[in-house]
């Protein structure tokens, strides 16, 4: 079944503790300042803990507190809504959000999905992501690196937030 996307999607990817959730929070807060309804989807890499405590997924709580209109955390076939299915694919989660009025969806994780993505680079060895991932539109790095992609330093918040919202507006 073809997936009709009526709003911009942007992935935020990187290795654990690279700043993904913090970046999503910043984007959601700025979007709220602009009057945008931004929903988030997070892939929870620690499936067993999500299944044990689905309502205590701290990152989705951070997304919601930042102003997200809705949040989903998926891991190991479990959804924060405690729904179960054989598999919660990213496409199913995006379709679920079609019922809400969103201006944008931010996706934290799902590295192998092919939506436009911003890659966070914290350590030199993380740069392998720049050759192994698809549809990279920008990189936010903690360290000096060379890349062919639009590049920002992690501390240059105003510049990368401005770029992100211009990217979203350009469709």
Written description of the protein model:
The protein has 171 residues and is α/β, with parallel strands linked by helices. The protein has one domain: Rossmann fold (3-Layer(aba) Sandwich). 32% of the residues lie in helices and 23% in strands. Strand 3 and strand 4 form a beta hairpin.
Write a concise keyword list for the protein shown above.
171 residues, alpha/beta, Rossmann fold, 8-stranded mixed β-sheet, 8 strands, 32% helix, 23% strand, globular
Q: Give the SSE order as H and E letters.
A: EHEHHEEHEEHEEH
Strand order of the largest sheet: 4-3-2-5-1-6-7-8
- Strand count, sense and closure of the main sheet? 8 strands, mixed
The CATH superfamily title: P-loop containing nucleotide triphosphate hydrolases
Ends distance: 23 Å
* Poorly predicted segments: 47-56
Q: Could you say what the CATH topology is called?
A: Rossmann fold
Strand-residue proportion: 15-25%
State the name of the first-level CATH class: Alpha Beta
- Counted by DSSP, the helix tally is 6
Structural class: alpha/beta
CATH architecture: 3-Layer(aba) Sandwich
Gyration radius (Cα, Å) is 15 Å
Question: How confident is the prediction overall: mean pLDDT?
Answer: 84
How would you name the oligomeric state of the polypeptide chains in this document?
single chain
Number of domains: 1
Residues in helix, %: 25-40%
Number of E-state strands: 8
Q: What is the 3D shape?
A: globular
Short description:
The chain has helices spanning 20-33, 47-52, 58-66, 90-97, 129-132, 157-169, and strands spanning 9-13, 38-43, 70-75, 78-79, 104-108, 117-121, 136-141, 150-153. The protein is built from six helices and eight strands.
């Amino acid at each position: 079944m073809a997936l009709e996307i009526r709003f911009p999607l942007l992935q935020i990817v990187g290795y654990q503790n690279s700043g993904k959730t913090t970046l999503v929070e910043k984007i959601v807060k700025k979007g709220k300042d602009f009057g945008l309804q931004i929903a988030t989807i997070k892939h929870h890499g620690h499936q067993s803990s999500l299944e044990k405590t689905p309502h205590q997924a701290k990152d989705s709580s951070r997304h919601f507190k930042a102003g997200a209109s809705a949040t989903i955390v998926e891991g190991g076939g479990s959804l924060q809504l405690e729904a179960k299915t054989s598999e919660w694919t990213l496409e199913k989660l995006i379709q679920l959000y079609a019922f809400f009025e969103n201006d944008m969806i931010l996706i934290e994780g799902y590295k192998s999905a092919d939506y436009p993505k911003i890659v966070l680079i914290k350590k030199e060895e993380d740069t392998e992501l720049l050759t192994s991932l698809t549809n990279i539109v920008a990189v936010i790095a903690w360290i000096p690196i060379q890349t062919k992609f639009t590049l920002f330093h992690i501390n240059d918040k105003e510049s990368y937030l401005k770029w992100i919202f211009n990217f979203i507006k350009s469709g």
